[in-house]
From TrEMBL:
It holds the Pfam family CheR_N. This is MCP methyltransferase, CheR-type. One of its GO terms (molecular function) is protein-glutamate O-methyltransferase activity. The keyword Endoplasmic reticulum does not apply.
Amino acid sequence: MEREELEDVEIQLLLEGIYRYYGFDFRNYALASLKRRIWNTVKTEGLTTISGLQEKVLHEPEYLERLLLNLSINVTAMFRDPNFFLTFRKKVIPILRTYPFIRIWHAGCSTGEEVYSMAILLKEEGLYHRSRLYATDINEIVLRKAKSGIFPLVMMQEYTHNYIQAGGKKAFSEYYTAAYGNAIFSSELKENIIFSLHNLATDNSFNEFHVIFCRNVLIYFNKNLQHRVHKLFYESLIRFGILGLGRQESIRFTPHEQDYEQLVSSEKIYRRVS
């Protein structure tokens, strides 16, 4: 058997073992990205084979925790892609004003920068008090970090720049307190946020939403899993609800392509129309 074939078998066995024993399903993640992340973990743990990693993961849960951190995509920033948030402010906020109560789902929220950005935006637009934000992720460790609302102070210059470009209406520093090299965000921003575990690969819808964000997550899934997630989002959105995707993502060539209209050509913000 070729070395590459053997590697693929090892990866399949590892992912199948994780799914059967722990319930985390990475079997439909894009293989090239998975392969890189798994090998990084193998080397970091001082191992030599993927089979060796499988043995550790199945018998010692702390290895699973570290592998999950590597397999979960946790690249994020506050007001990331500022024009997305500026467009949301201009085009979507007027739609949301027509609802008495607003439910927003941040799927794959990672360490929470995006959900705090949305809380700030909604506060400035006078809508936060009648909004509920659901921030979900597969990874308990990053969720705990998100719930803390504490981010490195060194990132605030970049985040402030993003905030201003996104149409921010105040001094960004009003939203956090600096202490011990960290920015501790106001507890008021967390009042209407619910942080919860949710696995896009296996879990079902848990509410009906006016807005769903899933940005820069779908690019790490294969076509089958992408289609599953798009079905989940379609079933979870109210009619005329809003779906926000990442810059490299699209609803084109998905089973629900005809069910949405793109609000503006420059951003991946879609409105469910059927």
